[in-house]
Amino acid sequence: MKLLQLKVRNFKPFSALMLPEGDAELPEGLILIRGQNSTGKSSLFEAILWGFWGADAVDLTNDELINFRSTNCQVVLTFQIADTQYKIDRSYDPANGMAVVLFINREGAWKRIADKSKSVNSKLDEILCLELRQALNTLLVRQGEVAVIANATPSVLRDLLVKVYDIDLLNQMSSHLESLEKDVDSKINSLKSDYIHPERIQEMVAERQDEIRRLESILITKKKEIESTEKILEEMPNAELLKKVQELSKNIEFLQQEVEVKSEGLKEDIALAGVVDASPKVLNARLDALEQGRKRIEKEQKVLKSKIQRLDQDIGMSLGTNRDLEEKIQILTAAGTDDIIECPTCAKPLSAAERNKLVTEYKITIKDSETKRKRLEITKQELITSSEDFEDQLSRMSKSEDAVKRANQGQKRVDQSKEKLSKVEQEFSMLLEEYNIKSVDKLLKKYNMPTIIELHEKVISLTSALKALRKETMESEDNIQREKDKIIELQGKQSQMEQIGSEIVELENMNEHAKYVRRRLVSGFVTDYVFQKRLLGIIRGATNPYVRSFTNGQYTAIDLEPTPAKGRAGPGLILRIWDERDQAWKKTSQLSYGDRTAISLALRMGISRTMSSIRPLRDSPIVTPRVRSVLLDEPLGGLDKNRREAVVRNLINDRSFEQILLITHTDVQGWLGVPVIEVTKDGAFSNATLEM
Fold first, then answer.
1. What tens digit of pLDDT does each residue of 107-133 get?
2. What is the band of 31 on the pLDDT scale with cuts at 50, 70, 90?
3. What is the mean pLDDT of residues 290-312?
4. Which CATH number fits domain 1-129+628-692: 3.40.850.10, 3.50.50.60, 3.40.50.300, 2.40.160.210?
5. Which of 418, 444, 439, 441 lies closest to 428, judged by CA?
């Protein structure tokens, strides 16, 4: 498989990316992916994996892959298998979910061949001749995976190879046995959850019998209390009678207070009305007298107001005349001694002597008018005082009239309340007579109660207590019956528990056998046959050329030596390396960190080179490898300058893979002429460009 083009939109740090730009295609062979930390180099690999297989191929959810400034993401991959080109378009947004379409290029046109997640995955398995897990292990060398191999214990290294090579038949056998163990464990746990030992059943029967005796003792006590309470209630008046007596007593008290209050109000109104009693004759006579007096005063009041009005007119005329004369005097006195002016009244020319004489006459007139006006003011004030007296008399007469009317209505209300009181008292008397009660006081004295309310409450309390006792008695009887039923049920369980116990023992034996087969026989078969006789030789042959190249010939071969199981650890593999310089086999623990890293990378490259064509068993079908590409995520971190140069030189010349994408942020010598994807970051977004 060869990756031709990668288009990314809103995926992690990439807003919009096209590799390479235009209609160009990614080249074959080694392609370096270079950039500083946190620029998005690994995100390019994640985009490729997600584009092929979705979220199952990465360790993030779909929502976590969307760029923080967007609401959706898209990856479009164009790739080639043999001579056929394919394109997969995968997009996701939280509102509509996942959308994916797989195309094939036929005669220069893209034809849709699958458009649902399930159908696309199935078609990819068919095209690549590999399932997802095996394809990922073939295609991707994850960051840190080389270090894991370099530092792996024998059992960890063996388990890693089993997982990477995905030996289906043996895995399925082990998985089936493990599922059987879980099912048996589940059945055992289920049976144990229901299982009760027969001796415990006998103890439970004894406990139930003790409980029955306790409940029967309580039941006897409750029945005695019921009998005593019933006897007390038989001698006391019933609650309904006491409630009626209480209501009537309260009503009588209320009506008595009402009569008293209304009578007091009536007395006040009679006093204000100026009568001795509230009989209709007296009140009507008083109303007639007040009406006549009111009419007489209103008539006199009208005459006074007319006189006051005439006096106001005379006073106003006097004031007007004086103002007119004062204006004339001002005009006459304003002229000089020799001036001749006209008379303000008749327009006749006046001499100085005539002016002075006229001014004197005007002043005398003003003085006389002022004297007259003061007399009029005094007379007016006397009339106003008389009018106010009339108003006061009318007010008092109005209040008396209102009091007469209130007294009339008040007398009616008092009579109505007395009539109600009489009826209630008669009803109360008849009630006491009906139940042979001589008086309320004697009734209260008989039962030593201060009030009817408290006597009623006592009867209610005794009635409620009796009801509760009867309910408790029924509950005790039900509980006794339930305990008896439980004893019968427990007595019938013993044979059932014995059967369950036998079944548990049988299942536990079966589970031990299944664990033995899975842990000893299946694991042993993997070690003896698959690993030792088939797989290890293939891995050695594929890995040794990489070992020689990556170490500049210092190490020339590896061996994977099986080890038996020890304690809890299962069987394992020890990685040994032939040191050409020292002419000795060495363990990884005897190598430097850089040498271990180079050997582990060589082993991982050998695994990727061989695993897609491995047949675990003789009868396993032959599968032609179609994923002949590898993605290397930061494998050079533990290597020195010479080792890095050797690795890159070998990868440049490696024809085992159609395409090798190598992520690094370490300077690499000897890569001149190698295509480079430069990854940079500008603010919140990253970008990548292909440099040939």
1. 999 999 999 999 999 999 888 877 777
2. very high
3. 86
4. 3.40.50.300
5. 439
